[in-house]
Amino acid sequence: MQNRLEPPIFSNWQEAWEWHARETYKHFAQQPEDKLLAQIAAGSYDEYYTIWYSLREKTSLAQAAPILLDVLRREVGEANTLIRYHCAAALFYLMGYADDSPPSLRLRVQWDHDGEPARQEAIDELEQSLAQ
User: Fold this and answer.
1) What is the pTM of this model?
2) How far apart are CA 106 and CA 88, in angstroms?
3) pLDDT of res. 130
4) Which domain holds residue 66?
5) What is the distance of C-alpha 42 from the center of its chain?
């Protein structure tokens, strides 16, 4: 993604991060739901994690759940922790949960503190609850 605006001069990394995140969010806000879902399905996320917040404002649980579940399954390891966190936040938001009080299932789905097999079992549990 290319920014149409020349970035301003920043006095610190936080200002730079926030500016780039806002510009990236604006870009995703203009994209149709199917394009965002296809980008996520292809594993192409943004470094500011804004795609997840744009998606949750545009899509339904029925449309997004299969793709978000796939992301949660495939993004393993410590390097992908933030991807799982934001993906799970989007999915549980679409399920009707507030961001500030995540259910224990969300925590088990996004974190691998109990090992990857336990996290995958939590995803199975989530998938079964969505199927009902």
Assistant:
1) 0.90
2) 6
3) 96
4) 13-131
5) 13
